[in-house]
Design brief:
Layout (H helix, E strand, L loop, with lengths): L4 H25 L2 H56 L6 H83 L3 H14 L3 E5 L2 E2 L8 H9 L6 E2 L6 E4 L6
Parallel strand pairs: 1-4
Antiparallel strand pairs: 1-2, 3-4
Helix pairs in contact: 1-3, 2-3
Length: 246
């Protein structure tokens, strides 16, 4: 393939612009805000699940408290009824009196146990409500932090996109001055190796950074200026410059 030395030199401009575009794309992908937002989303999902679990637990505890309080009221009513019988003198038999007093004592112990259950449930509800409020407060803070991180990410992305657009415009202008067949070869090699063309400097290919042997250098020296030459090691287009060492 043949192309003017000027057209070949444009390939180095293209390679520099492609490298710049690649750097900008890598910078866009590597913005720290991406990881920050991902981590915040992960934590927010954990908190959302925790709050849902706490909601379910609070519902169970409310029902358990209502049942325990109803049991306390029932036992208290039985105690009051039995005491009413005693106070009214309705029990005359010593045996029946003993049994009634024993029942009252048993009911009082049962009432005490049930009241402790109610207190325990209330404490568990209070603890759950505290954890729930803390989780909701953390979610609110995460929402604010995420909004700030998103704004930073969007600002950085906009700046990168602006730089990339300028580089892309420059690339289009440079590519317009490269013969179609040479540009097609460059694009093919760029797709294969990441870099389609490299300068020959000091007898070294700047694509693979290997020094050419004497035979290859002599072949390049003998080639016409418009001959498109390739690196024998990496197969990229070698562009000859004033400091190629030929």
């Amino acid at each position: 393939m043949k192309a003017s030395p000027e057209a070949q030199l444009r390939l180095l401009e293209l390679a520099d612009l492609d490298a710049e575009l690649s750097r900008l794309a890598a910078r866009r992908r590597g913005l720290p805000e991406h990881a920050e937002i991902e981590e915040m989303d992960r934590r927010d999902a954990q908190l959302r699940d925790a709050i849902a679990t706490l909601d379910a637990e609070q519902g169970d505890l409310r029902r358990a408290q209502l049942k325990a309080e109803a049991d306390v009221d029932q036992v208290r009513a039985r105690i009051e009824r039995d005491r009413g019988r005693l106070d009214a003198g309705q029990v005359s038999s010593p045996r029946e009196l003993e049994n009634l007093q024993s029942e009252i004592g048993s009911l009082q112990r049962r009432q005490s146990d049930l009241e402790e259950i109610v207190i325990d449930i209330m404490e568990r509800r209070e603890s759950g409500e505290t954890r729930q409020r803390a989780a909701e407060a953390e979610r609110a803070q995460i929402a604010a932090d995420r909004e700030a991180a998103t704004a930073r990410r969007d600002a950085a992305t906009a700046e990168i996109d602006e730089q990339a657009a300028k580089a892309q415009d420059q690339r289009s202008a440079v590519a317009a001055g490269v013969p179609a067949d040479l540009l097609a070869l460059y694009e093919q090699l760029r797709a294969q190796y990441g870099v389609g063309a490299a300068a020959l400097r000091g007898g070294q290919c700047q694509g693979c950074h290997l020094s050419l042997n004497t035979v290859d250098l002599n072949a390049i020296r003998a080639a016409a200026p418009d001959e498109v030459v390739r690196c024998e090691e990496c197969r990229r287009i070698l562009v000859r410059t004033s400091d190629s060492g030929l």
